[in-house]
Amino acid sequence: MTYRTIRQRFLLSAGSTVIMGLLMAAAANSEASPGTLGSFNVSSNTTTPLPSPREEQARAPRLDAYHGHFWDSLSLEPQDVWSVMRQSFQWQEITLPLEAQARVDEWIEHYRARPQNIVEITRRATPWLAWISEQVSERGLPGEIALIPFVESSFDPSAKSHRGAAGLWQFMPGTGDALGLVRNQSYDGRLDVVTSTQAALDYLESQAAEWYQGDIMLSLAAYNAGAGTVNKALRSAQSQGLDGSYWDLSLPSETMQYVPKLKAIATIIQNPERYGVELPDIQATPAFAKIQLENPLSLAEASQLLDVSQQTLAELNPGLLGAQAGPRNGQTLLVPESADSELIAELSQSTDAVLASTDTPAVHRVESGDSLSAIAARYNLDQRDLIRWNALDRPGALTPGQLLALTAR
């Protein structure tokens, strides 16, 4: 069952419960109200005169705003990711000092003059934005935090800076290591969107709690410049009698512009029509499903089994440098939400039962003692084709349980 299916069932169940509760309350309210269908007072068992038309009108139930629009409210408009994000924004109503607002306005005009840049970046964010926004919301963080990759990497999960930072969240190697992001020849956790997003949010929350009494803006400054630099600037501002908010600090130029950029982007997303920006349609639910792998599985194998292009899988799994996922190299494989994720989960854990269900073998599960030459001979294939189709870096080091694609995509 995919994430979306679970979410839909939950919402339907919750909606049914709410509706039944409201209908029962309405019925109870009706029973408690004076009746208008008969001319008998049940409690006294005596007849009473029928009310006059004016009295009848006065007695008629009056629909307040809640009851009058109850059924209309059940026809909810489908939400996209932008409407969901707007509901989670926390900084848009904050009134800033004039100098601080001028810094935000400068970036609003910068982006406003380049609307195509925003459109291009938000389109690049399409696979990731709904899921990231969801993670931010679940932690109770300002919705603006989901836009940090806009500032850091233009939402390019493979982005690398000249200083060595990498991924959507632009982690330096040392920082990534400290946060437990695995790096080796075949996998880089900084490029893994799921893993790096969790690490980034953990980092922001821990920094805010440890140093800044929960102030996320100061934690963002530390994310960019380092806690030492921000703490020094904070002490200096407080020694001058200032409150020590982000807007009070004297920081390196890049850090001084960090939060203004973020707030400017959120301001434009809050009201894109005002700034002449047309945002792309992005669904409000995650665009991918996560599969936990028990055995190694190459992207070529997954492509064959799921009928999903290998390029699509590679774009969803940029942390897999060697094009193979598994317990050692990024245990979670991301696949399109619409793909048959149950099949790939079954194949990653089962034996040949599922493979036998196909008319023509498309894959081979490596068994103990198998060699590439023996597999090629068994299926009358060229070893070089097997190497190319499966992106094998070490053809002589096959792993029992590994799936090999037997045809080109």
From TrEMBL:
Q: Which residues form the LysM domain?
A: 362-406
Q: State the UniProt keywords alphabetically.
A: Signal
Q: Where does the record locate the signal sequence feature?
A: 1-27
Spell out the Polar residues composition-biased ranges. Answer: 35-49
**Which residue intervals make up region (Disordered)?**
35-58
InterPro entries with a match to the protein in the record: LysM (IPR018392), LysM_dom_sf (IPR036779), Lysozyme-like_dom_sf (IPR023346), Transglyc_AS (IPR000189), Transglycosylase_SLT_dom_1 (IPR008258)
Coiled-coil spans in chain? none
Domain of life, per the record?
Bacteria
- Pfam families recorded for this chain? LysM (PF01476), SLT (PF01464)
What family does this chain come from, according to its entry?
A: Belongs to the transglycosylase Slt family.
What's the protein name? Transglycosylase SLT domain-containing protein
Identify the species of origin. Vreelandella malpeensis
* Organism placement in taxonomy: Bacteria, Pseudomonadati, Pseudomonadota, Gammaproteobacteria, Oceanospirillales
